[in-house]
Each structure stands twice: as structure tokens, then as C-alpha cells.
Amino acid sequence: MRRMIRVGAAVAAMIALSACEEPGKTVRVPAPTSSAATSTESPEQALRTGKLAEGMRIAEVLALPTDIDPRYVRHASSDVLTSARLMVSTGHHAAIAAVADANDLLAGFLSQRSNGGKGTAGTDWLTHGVMRFPDAATAASAATEFAAAATSERGMMQSADWTPATVADAPEARFVLLEERGRLEGMAFTPYRDYVIFTEVRAGGRSEIEATVVEALKRQRPLLEAFTPTTESELARLPYDPDGIYALSVGDNGGGRGAYRQHAALLFAEDQQAAVTLYPKVGVSAMANKGSTVYRAADAAGATELATATAAAIGTARDMKTAPAPADVPGVSCLTDGNEHANAWVCLVTAGRHVAEVWAKTSDDAHAGAREQQRVLAAAK
Q: CA-CA distance, 127 to 187, in Å (whole number)?
């Protein structure tokens, strides 16, 4: 789910995509209908927003981490993949980020999950993303340069060096390995058409890491075949929040900012595999993150079922228990883990066909946010 502590909240950008109607099916995501940039944006601002919007479109065809390996049950972060976000994801590695900028990274998206293990030694991680470049030649060059940059210097968070390696069953992958604090980690940059598929794995031994990279490529390539990229000349004209859901998110401190549709919403799900079945069943058609996280279901019954399932998934994953909800707000339930941290409380707010998660540090903040969220959702269509 969405957390205030998540790294890399980007400027707001919306997306127009085709919803994925059936889990497990390849659904074509066409290029969106263009619309003029808002009058308050400069051409440069409109292009930046459009590139972020294209990243949200790529999220609709990103392979689900739990499809790559079902062990990665716990959501950590999902974000538009800018060069700044790539730098953070690769250990605050400025040289890798510089390669993205030098090769004109147009757009991308990334999602990270863990196995829910305890402590550094017990936690495995999978980070998977896609970056789009101007053409196939640039993507191929960028992939090679990414791997070279990884080995040329250490990122801010590194205490050992990445070393060049290969993946036996994916020789096209530009692959590097890092052994640090008794753990092995692999990072692959694989060119595919105009894209670079980025897969980073921290789990077990080298054979396990390579197998995960190969499976990620196997699942990601067909999904990219379903994607129709926006032409560069139209990036600045991508529609802004066509589903009208971003404005329903209250607050302004969320990670993974933006507006999404059904498949991309799965990337954020606490119980991703359960959501693969649940979201089509209840008709999730849109989701937004700005501060709170808001979902749109097909109807009020679907929203109620979604809220119940979401609360249960959060409670199980985060060891949170039912807590007092504000008595003056209808359709609200709350959970807390009883600790002192930024996301110790969450309230689920249901109104009509919408459901929202409001995360907060204290019960007072959670209840205040729930009141504001219910007011906004009650006025929504």
C-alpha cells in the first residue's frame, strides 16, 4: 500500500490507458488520444508531465513481481522510473542515473517487493522495471552503459563493488553482481526494442538470481508487445487524469504519485495475487495516489467488498489490528499496529463506488484525514 516514507514522490502526472479486464491475459494498451496541455504549463513543464504520464502508461504493462516469483509477497514501492528514481533504486548510484539522462530516458516504471523476511539477512528483494528510450539503438547502448557505470564506481550506499557477469539463459542481458555483507545481489539491464528491462534481485545464490532474471524477461517481453508508445511529439499532450480520480486523493505526501487503471493498481496491492482476482471481480477501473490512495470500483457493493478485503490484507501483512474509527464519519474502519511511526494508523473510507486508504502517524491525524476523505468521496460521482 502507499506509505508517507516511500522514496521518490514525483510531481503529479496523470495517465490515460486501457484497463486490463482479465488477469493473466495480454491486453493491448493503445496510444492515448491527445489533448492540449493546460494553459498554466510551459512547454517544458508539459513535456515533463507528459513523460511521467507515459511512465504511468508503462505501469499498465509491467510484469507483476508475484508473477515473476510468488515469494515476493510484500509491497515496498512502486514509482515512475525517472533517472532520479533509478539512482535511488541502484544504491544512490549517480553514474547509473547519468547514463539514463545521457541517453534521453523518456519514461519508465518500477515496482519493488520483498519476501517479508525479518532483518537484512532474512529479507529477499525483487525490483523490476521498464525504461523507454527514443529508439532500439539507444536502448541497446544505454543497457551496456548502465552495466559499465555500475562497475566504474560505487553508489553512495555501496560498501563493495559490482562486477561484470553473464546470465547463461539470457546472454543479451547486461548483468552485474555484488557480494556485500554476506549477501549476493544481481542487476540486469536488458535491451528489448526501444526499452531496457531492469531487474534487480537480492536472494539466495547466483543460480536463483539468474533464474529470476530469466523469468522476468519471459514475462515482460510479451507485455511490451501489447504496448503502443506515445510518439515523442505527442508526449507533452497526454491527457491529464482522464478518469477524474486524482483530485479525490486528499493530502499531499504519498509515494507512487499519479493516476492508474486496473493492472497498474495491482502493482501497489498488499496481497497482489489475491488482487489479481479481486480487482476485476469488484470492477476496479481507476486508482490514484497523491496523499491518500483512492480506488474506484464498479458500484457501492464492489467498493464495500474491496474495502473489507483491503483492510484484511493490510492487517495480515502489517500486523495491524482493528482500532477505533471516528464515530461521526460513516463508512470508515481503522487499523493500527500500536507503534510510533509515520504509518502507524490507516483508515479505510468507503463512499459510493470509491474506497480510500488514509495513512497517518496518530489516531487524531488518521481520523481528521478520514473526515476530509469522506467529504470528498461523498461529493464524487
A: 9
